[in-house]
């Protein structure tokens, strides 16, 4: 099954009043369960945060449905995702 993993990150190199200070990134993760998709997304986002002066604020995982992706796309357009 496919899941939409959304993580909110803070860029610690920017001042708190900068519009880019906190930003979302979304990943589509294929996994056996929601908890396994959440664990993999958390692993990837923590690894990214450690290497880029970022911190993870929170993350969520939900079953990916066509309408949900369309609805969420605007909230996940922060900096173009984790691989920027």
Describe what you observe in this structure.
The chain is α+β, with helices and mostly antiparallel strands. The protein has one domain (2-76). It has two helices and three strands. It has a three-stranded antiparallel beta sheet, with helices on one face. It is elongated and about 40 Å long. The chain starts with a strand and ends in a 12-residue tail after the last helix. Residues 80-84 have low confidence and may be disordered.
Summary of the model, kept short:
This protein is α+β, with helices and mostly antiparallel strands. It is 30% helix and 35% strand. The longest helix is centred in the middle third of the chain and has 18 residues, at 34-51.
């Amino acid at each position: 099954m496919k899941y939409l993993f959304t993580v909110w990150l803070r860029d610690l190199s920017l001042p708190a009043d900068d519009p880019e200070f906190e930003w979302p990134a979304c990943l589509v993760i294929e996994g056996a369960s929601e908890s396994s998709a959440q664990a993999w997304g958390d692993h990837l986002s923590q690894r990214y945060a450690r290497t880029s002066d970022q911190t993870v604020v929170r993350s969520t995982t939900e079953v990916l449905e066509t309408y949900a992706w369309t609805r969420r796309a605007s909230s996940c357009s922060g900096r173009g995702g984790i691989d920027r």
